Amino acid sequence: MTGLGQLAERLAELPQQSRPVILAVDVGEPATRVRRFLAREFADRPPPFPILIDEDRAAMKAWKVAFLPTSYVLDAGHAVRAEAAGPVDWTDARALAVLDSLLAEAPPRAALDLPTLTLPALPENSGSKQQ
């Protein structure tokens, strides 16, 4: 969560109208466990981004997630522009370069068929394949 917190701080420096939004999704854990974790992680402040608690895995199924963690970067038109299956170091220069390239683009147009970029996953892939 530290990396996402740092990314949220970096994004907060952008103008409101062009600022991407972070949405974290916790999959398959009871809400009480998630809230305990968040209380420890963000003891003196609320998280700098919303967190969806997906206890029944409905969001995971809707997005066809096969690996946790999975990250998606959406453009202003809500099209997936970057994705990673596995942990991402959001402070890594390669991940920041992908984000910067997306932020530098003109506003999306629905008629365009834009490529999906791949975010660099951490080499010591500690994620888990989902059934």
Describe this structure in words.
The protein is α/β, with parallel strands linked by helices and 131 residues long. The protein has one domain: Glutaredoxin. The protein is built from four helices and seven strands; from the N terminus they run αβαβαβββαββ. The radius of gyration is 15 Å and the shape is globular. The chain starts with a helix and ends with a strand.
Radius of gyration over all CA atoms, rounded: 15 Å
Average pLDDT level: 80
| Class inferred from helices and paired strands | alpha/beta
What is the CATH first-level class name?
A: Alpha Beta
- Give the CATH H-level superfamily: Glutaredoxin
Structural domains: how many: 1
Q: SSE string, helix = H, strand = E?
A: HEHEHEEEHEE
Number of helical stretches of at least 4 residues: 4
Classify the oligomer.
single chain
The 3D shape can be described as: globular
CATH-level-2 architecture:
3-Layer(aba) Sandwich
Which spans have pLDDT < 50 for at least 5 consecutive residues?
Answer: none
Total number of β-strand segments?
A: 7
Distance between the termini: 24 Å
Strand content: 15-25%
CATH fold assignment: Glutaredoxin
**Strand order in the sheet with the most strands:** 4-5-6
**What composes the largest sheet?**
3 strands, mixed
- Helicity, in percent? 25-40%
Per-chain topology:
Blueprint: H1 2-11, E1 24-27, H2 31-41, E2 51-54, H3 58-62, E3 67-68, E4 70-74, E5 80-85, H4 93-104, E6 117-118, E7 128-129
What's this model, at a glance?
The chain has 131 residues and is α/β, with parallel strands linked by helices. It is built from four helices and seven strands.
